[in-house]
Specification:
36% of the residues lie in helices and 20% in strands. By secondary structure, it is of the alpha/beta class. It has three domains: 97 residues, 3-Layer(aba) Sandwich (Rossmann fold); 116 residues, Cobalt-precorrin-4 Transmethylase, domain 1 (3-Layer(aba) Sandwich), CATH 3.40.1010; 122 residues, 2-Layer Sandwich (Methyltransferase, Cobalt-precorrin-4 Transmethylase, Domain 2), CATH 3.30.950.10. The strands form five sheets. It has a five-stranded parallel sheet with strand order 3-2-1-4-5, with helices on both faces. A five-stranded parallel sheet has the order 10-9-13-8-14, with helices on both faces. Helix 2 links the parallel strand 2 and strand 3. Helix 7 runs antiparallel to helix 8. The two termini are 43 Å apart.
């Protein structure tokens, strides 16, 4: 370790920036954000800096006297001899100094910063690769969203109260872990700080300082892990138990917390590992055991995902829950297949239907589906493909209407089979597509060859 990572307090203290160009201006801005008073020395200084009440603008070449009274120094000129002079004078006075892009002249390194004040994360490669540190910051941006500052501020606000009420240090540590990883944290992160405070006070009043668990109903999207939302990924890393469906791809399941219990409740047509009613009760039982339960569903939980049925049961049992939308198969799969769901020349509306009703029939509103200038997207319709095509033609849709079956959309095994209402049933019989599939009907299918970009 070439540098000791420290956080230095500069609020209200005078810091020096030598250099008035773009880099110097940027460094002065960082110091100002940290509450410092900044002296900028350069032959030319940006007008915006000059007008800042917390900036002492000295339009001159650097001299030793400019170090008087400063706590920290950044040299950001394009003249190495000047930078070296600044560094030598600063180190002779034991004043911390950073010379931009010149580690040999530095006594400290300016890291890449992820600011979630009061939570701060800093990255440094010791000056070896500033670009790499910025890339690492970018990766962490996706894991620690901006609203984490709410959580840090919330913890700061109740720190003394918790210290007074939970006097045993090991127990207090466990208490804070439960707060910052559980239901209370999710309340705060979603903007419900009043709800978080109420739960924290309730938790303090309990003899064992424990709250019940929570259920996260999370849409996993159509299969490609890159389509997960930041919030979905965060909750996937927190859950104690993962209850997942057949439509959730293996790479996404593997992104859940490694030590979490995984329960497969996948449902295929006529082959249900658990009936829906038992899944609902399973979620209730696990939550009442105090566990954080991730209910991971393919696509979006509220679009043919039966998510509404599950949260009805949770609400009736008084179980805390939250819902995280996912990219539904219609939009995700169509995009990867190169088929826009709407297009000015082909479709001014789009309708989603399921090809498998609760009673096992395909008794749909055929007149509504057969209207011109619209796109029809059919979920779970592969088995009823013959009926689907025949009924649409019977109700007035031309048998030349383009239609596509997309197998395993957005995944490496994606395959797109196209035809017309008249020809696709025979083509599918020959090609034998494998579920899960999505069926797209309408003129937009003709755009596939021109617009397809995903080639597994």
């Amino acid at each position: 370790m070439d540098f000791l990572p420290v956080f230095q307090k500069v609020k209200g203290r005078l810091c020096l920036v030598v250099g008035g160009g773009a880099v110097g201006t940027r460094k002065a801005g960082v110091l100002l954000e940290a509450g410092a008073k900044v002296r900028v020395v350069a032959p030319e200084i940006d007008d915006e800096l000059k007008s800042n009440a917390n900036v002492e603008a000295v339009v001159a070449r650097f001299e030793a006297k400019h170090l008087d009274g400063v706590t920290l120094i950044i040299a950001a000129t394009n003249d190495r001899s000047v930078n070296k002079q600044v560094s030598e004078l600063a180190q002779a006075r034991n004043i911390p100094v950073n010379v931009v892009d010149d580690p040999e002249l530095c006594s400290f390194i300016m890291p890449a910063i992820l600011d979630r004040s009061p939570l701060m994360v800093a990255f440094s490669s010791g000056g070896a690769s500033p670009v790499l540190t910025r890339m690492m910051r970018g990766k962490l941006e996706s894991i620690i969203p901006h609203n984490f500052k709410r959580l840090a501020q919330f913890a700061e606000r109740f720190r003394e109260l918790v210290k007074q009420r939970v006097t045993n240090p090991p127990k207090r540590r466990l208490f804070w872990e439960d707060v910052l990883e559980g239901v209370i944290a999710e309340k705060v992160l979603s903007g419900d700080e009043a709800g978080g405070e109420a739960l924290l006070r309730e938790m303090l009043d309990k003899e064992d300082n424990v709250l019940h668990g929570e259920v996260y109903l999370v849409g996993a999207g159509p299969g490609d892990p890159d389509l997960l939302t930041f919030r979905a990924l965060r909750l996937m890393q927190k859950a104690d138990v993962v209850v997942y469906d057949n439509l959730v791809s293996k790479p996404i399941v593997e992104m859940t917390r490694r030590d979490a219990e995984r329960i497969y409740v996948g449902k295929k047509r006529d082959d249900h590992t658990l009936p829906q009613e038992e899944i609902n009760l399973l979620l209730v039982r696990l939550a009442k055991e105090g566990k954080r339960v991730l209910r991971l569903k393919g696509g979006d939980p509220f679009i043919f995902g039966r998510g509404g049925e599950e949260i009805e049961t949770l609400a009736a049992e008084g179980i805390a829950f939250q819902v995280v939308p996912g990219i539904t198969a219609a939009s995700g799969v169509a995009s990867y297949a190169g088929i826009p769901l709407t297009h000015r020349d082909h479709a001014q509306s789009c309708i989603f239907v399921t090809g498998h009703l609760k009673d096992g029939t395909m008794n749909l509103d055929w007149d509504a589906l057969a209207r011109p200038k619209q796109t029809v997207v059919v979920y779970m319709g592969l088995r009823g493909l013959d009926t689907l095509c025949a009924e649409l033609v019977k109700h007035g849709m031309p048998d030349t209407t383009p239609i596509a079956i997309v197998q395993h959309g957005t995944q490496p095994t994606q395959r797109v089979i196209t035809g017309t209402l008249a020809t696709l049933p025979a083509i599918a019989e020959r090609e034998k597509p494998q579920a899960p599939t999505l069926i797209i009907i309408g003129g937009v299918v003709t755009l596939r060859e021109k617009l397809a970009w995903f080639h597994p």
